[in-house]
Request: fold
Amino acid sequence: MRRLTPRLYVEGIAEAVSTLRRYPLRASLAGLAMAVAVATSAIVQTSLNGLAESARQTSERAFGSNSFLLTRLATGGLSRRDLAVKSERNPNITRRDLRFLETVADGVVTYGAVAQRQADVGAAGRSFENAAINGTQATLTAIRDINLASGRFLTADEEVRGAQVVVLGSEVAATLFPGVDPLGQAVRIGLRRFRVIGLQVPQGTSGGQALDRIVYMPLTAFERTFGAPTSLLVYATEGADRSTRAAEDRARVSMRARRHLGPGADDTFDIVTPEAARGFVDQLTQQVSAAGPPISFMALVAAIIVVANTTLVSVTQRTREIGVRRAIGASRHSVVVETLAESTVVALVGGGLGLVAALVAVSLAGAALAIELSLEWTVGGASLAAAGLSGLVAGWYPAKRAASSNVVDALRLD
Reply:
């Protein structure tokens, strides 16, 4: 019996490659099954990772970094009963509340209020329906990244004067001014004409909200166009040389003082922190990502079955050849090594081709969806390792059957 040496394994792999070259169609079919499985696994995982990262980035653009939100009511995670209680208890946040907050901010907090409503926007015979009109303050740019593609944002002077100027989201601009530079053009909102002074880059969506349908205008102009808003959203961030925690504490104390809330009384407003907003996004993306492993597992199981059947057919067709090799001194172990090497080589080659296909598919999908997708080396390495392991699993039963075949019976076959 031959000793188990590295050379034996090398010879087994060489025999396996030789066998595959003699039966290229069979090897190609098995490799194709593994390529599909690996490509599916890599594409699914990369897509889910890319979507999760895109959701986090979009959430940061919509919410801001090192910021928080004062709102009448935060509905996330509330039961119907709690929602009903808060809806009845919490009054609207008004302009007077905002002025009080700004008066006592003392440089600890920077506030930027937003009033929202849906309205149509028209220009040059075209109309954009149900745009998200945001009346806001110039300070919003210190709190959130507005991401301007061109032009500028509102100024403090325009805010005070109620200047009829707007910043358009990318979808609004593309619809109203196809093939034309929107800067300096006029749009109609309500019964008023506004001049376009800025354009946003595409923002995507966040929490189901389309961020490219937004139109920003000075809060005073918003009030002149639509009347006083029902309730304001007040974004806030820390002032110079202050911490976010200190800003949150100042905002909470200020609002409680404004509402004359005594010690122990519940807040009649909500503060939404970045952690809460991002936590919701993370929870959502984790739930979506949970679909990845089952899909990958099912694809690999299907590939294992195909490779196992193909390897078993190979062993059956080569029964006499295996018997001859055993008769002239080949050990059972060498037969096992050769059979396992055959299934593993097929799986690895197929897996490598699957990764190439996945790389091309991910690049095309990223370009088409305007999402940053890239096949990470960890995903590629894990997919290729899974292919190799699947090859070993697929070859186990055929290898066991080949090694246990009776030499005499094998030699009798024609």
